[in-house]
Amino acid sequence: MKETIRYLAGIAGPSGFGSNSTAEQVTQQYSPSNNLTALITGATSGIGAETARVLAKRGVRVVIGARDMKKAIKIREKIQEESPYAEIILLEIDLSSLASIHRFCSEFLALELPLNILINNAGVYSHNLEFSEEKIELTFATNYLGHFLLTKMLLEKMIDTSNKTGIQGRIINISSVIHSWVKRTCFCFKDMLSGKNYNGTRAYAQSKLAMILHAKEMARQLKARNARVTINAIHPGIVRTGIIRAHKGLITDSLFFIASKLLKTVSQGASTTCYVALSRETEGVSGKYFTDCNESNCSSLANDELEAKKLWNNTNSLLQKRLRQATIGSSSSLFSRPCI
Asked: N or C: lower Cβ tally within 10 Å for the chain?
């Protein structure tokens, strides 16, 4: 109840920021002394585009991984109208496709850029059951599996960048408070892959729970390696974006109108991502869950270490198998290493 009141009133938390804070406000004190590079998926609209705009405004080189390159070009033009000297690099990626992720990583690594910040932002919601080209339920494939593979393939670059620059790398998984709706009995890896008894909202919630579990287990492994890279999950708030509009047909227009008054603006929605990406206060913080720019509590299932390890191992095994089947160049060698 207290959290609800704090959210509605926009009361600041320990960080000094709250639900009403914008991405520009939370990064206002940030003065980049180094040339940081951030990679953001799904930054052609919504909070991803706002995150890209604000980071670019703060002097960060931004790499946008986009499925729709026409939209990406328009976003770059819009950002550079405001920040003429901003460096925005566009690369094509379809996070539901293992082959596309492999091509993207090859193209990015060929640029020989540093990688300080990885923001796993892209997400889809599908009311109807759909499948990726690998015959995996589309929501799970895009929101979770694709980001798992992307992070794994770029992790060594992040660690190398951190070692060379002395700047801690940061990975941010975009999750959602809706993760708490998932019951343990409904979180079955095989069923999520196949879309058994499919429900669009449940599938979306499951993928967002998986993103928190991924952050938890990866944080543990990074700590064991003494790697100077952190990973955290965040809930951006309920923002009026394309995903929210996809749900509109499930409720009445009048109810949606009332609910929309409680939604965050896109700039408010991007604030927590930008805060965790750039704030000095989040230096060294890893394996946590943030909402409204403050560390918060996630569900008991999201905090389950055994569940996180099981999901990691199942995912890793699946990707090894799929990559071998697809015989995608030499990429399968990336998975012959131990977990991280």
From this structure: N
Q: Does the annotation mark 198 as catalytic?
A: yes
Measured between alpha carbons, how far is 24 from 27 in angstroms, rounded to an integer?
5
Long-range contacts of 182-191 (CB under 8 A, 24+ apart): 182/206, 182/209, 182/299, 182/301, 183/301, 184/301, 184/307, 187/301, 187/307, 189/310, 189/311, 189/314, 189/315
Q: What is the DSSP letter of 254?
A: H
Contacts for 69-72: CB closer than 8 Å, 24+ residues apart: 71/44, 71/45, 72/43, 72/44
Mean pLDDT, 10 residues at a time, over the chain (340 residues)?
53 90 94 86 97 97 97 98 96 97 98 98 96 96 98 98 97 97 96 96 97 98 97 89 50 48 87 97 97 97 98 96 65 45
Q: Which two tokens stand for residue 24?
A: 């520009």
Q: What is the rounded distance in angstroms from the CA atom of residue 198 to the CA atom of residue 208?
A: 16
Residues with Cβ within 8 Å of residue 102, at least 6 apart in sequence: 153, 328, 329, 331
**DSSP secondary structure of 58-121:** TT-EEEEEES-HHHHHHHHHHHHHH-TT--EEEEE--TT-HHHHHHHHHHHHHTT----EEEE-
Which of 125, 198, 204, 289 is an active site residue? 198
Task: Please name the residue that has the structure tokens 């993760």.
Answer: 179
Q: What are phi and psi of 290, to 5 degrees?
A: -115, 145
Alpha-carbon dihedral of residues 272, 276, 277, 282, nearest 10 degrees?
160
pTM: 0.90
**Residue 127 CB neighbours (<10 A):** 15
- Spatial neighbors of 304 by CB under 8 A, at least 6 apart, are 213
Tokens encoding 317: 């095994």
Tell me how crowded residue 251 is: count the other CB atoms within 10 A of its CB.
Answer: 11
Give the span between the Cα atoms of 26 and 236, in whole angstroms: 14
Which residues partner with 172 through β-bridges?
119, 232
